[in-house]
Amino acid sequence: MDIYQESLEFHKKYKGKLQTTSPFSLKTKKDLSLAYTPGVAEPCRAIAKDPSKVYEYTLKSHTVAVVSDGSAVLGLGNIGAEAGIPVMEGKCVLFKELAGLDAFPICVKTQDVDEIVNIVKNIAPVFGAVNLEDISAPRCFEVEEKLQDIGIPVMHDDQHGTAVVVLAALVNALKVVGKKFDEITVVVSGAGAAGTAITKMLVCGGISTKVCIPVKDVLLCDSHGIIHKKRTDLNGSKKELVKITNRLNKQGTFADAFKGADVFIGVSAPNIVNADMIKSMAKNAIVFAMANPVPEIMPDIALAAGAAIVGTGRSDYPNQVNNALGFPGIFKGALDAHAVRITPEMRHAAAHALANSVVPTRDAILPSVLDKNVVLKVADAVRKKAIEQGVVRG
Known about the structure:
Distance between the termini: 55 Å
Helix content: 40-55%
Strand content: 5-15%
CATH superfamily of the largest domain: NAD(P)-binding Rossmann-like Domain
Largest sheet: 6 strands, mixed
Structural class: alpha/beta
CATH architecture of the largest domain: 3-Layer(aba) Sandwich
Shape: globular
């Protein structure tokens, strides 16, 4: 039985991966009176008088909504709300197991930006934060932007969780190979949600250079090759990205982008990179091939072609670059700080805390996803940055 069939049997056995449980036992009439009527009327009155008390008397302070429209699910594409539920359940399990936060999947039967925004705004009273998940680009950018002022942290993890972990991995990989951040050229394959956020993080888009050191250059590539200023087929988000990337306006194919580059970051499609592309890169090249489940190039091929460090999104190879190292600590830190949003500076703090949580080697540039101490370190860095910036509830 392969892992897919085994997982199918696993999900059938447990009927999903979540249950509703209570932190206390309902055994006596007194218990019933405290938890429900008549006693429950008093916290209701207290919240009605002072809405901020909802954080003291309900699950809001430790509960995250995992919201998806099922349009870009885990490499499976637009499979819809129902089919996306197993992934969102799994995300909720990670929140609980890694960060001690409760989470619930909210899979919505619409892919209209304004409808999704309206749904999230109207369920926000119950939740302390919102993790947007598996919403396709460019709609995911619009949804996230329109939800930044609803009073609780909202983050699209496919964008920013991925970018945080990639930055941490790159910081540590550069330590191992002895290269400087501001001297490297990076090729990014994939101009969707993850590729956009990674690119912005690498070039410090909108962030003070006191917080972020920009790389020398990023060559962002899509299915038509290098994105440059003379292309006439760019959508709105790519037009914005071309303003901050490809400083020399290099043109050419995807393969052309690799020539002399120091780093390749793939968040695109399987088996699109070959050995010759890796061979054309600079010495001690770093390759993060993160397409799932099949990466842009298999690690053994990349290493044989001369790559010094190779990471993938998979757990069965060394150097797993996975957003599960980022989002639990980011959300925990934001909730611990009573933050009203998650800022770029908070995400950079998370990335550097993650990088500093391990002494990197060629086969271990990041800690294990299952290391719960990492979550605490990331959360503490995010909490402190939120307080420093003043993006917290009064």
